[in-house]
Amino acid sequence: MKLLSSLFAGLAGQARAVGLILFRSRSLRGSFLLILLGAVLWVKREWPAPVTDSSLPPAVNATEPAAAVQHSPLPFRLGAGFAGGFLLSFAFRRFLKATALFAGLLLAAVAAVRALGWVDLDWNALEHEIHSALSWTHERALSVKAVLESYLPATAASGFGLWRGWRKGGRAVTGETA
What we know:
Blueprint: H1 2-23, H2 26-44, H3 74-115, H4 123-151, H5 155-168
């Protein structure tokens, strides 16, 4: 029970540390202010009256505003793009570190078990499985990239957010600000 409580205390400490890192980022706080400003502009926008011309097809005679008018304001898109890129990159860097640690420990365990003679591995088959897993991962990464490119607004802001989040993801909790 003591082990479990210490594990949860460690996880809570990690979550608190990540929260502090994210909260201290001035660029991320600025992007949230842009999102707020854009949301206010979006709510305050005056929508045009619906088209009711009977000579137009039914799809055009919609009661909702035209699709071109429904786009969010530029501050909202820029802030959301930056924040999305920042948080995605921040989480991805943390994930890569944990995955590399886990893979290293697993490889060391396999090497130790093989060196002790407890298991005889077919290294060619293992290499083939690793290559197939890497190709599958590459295909999935390309599809995720396509989805992100289509959904994350303001690609330049997203790219800048990805860069800032990647830099921020490796820092310890100190007084550093971005």
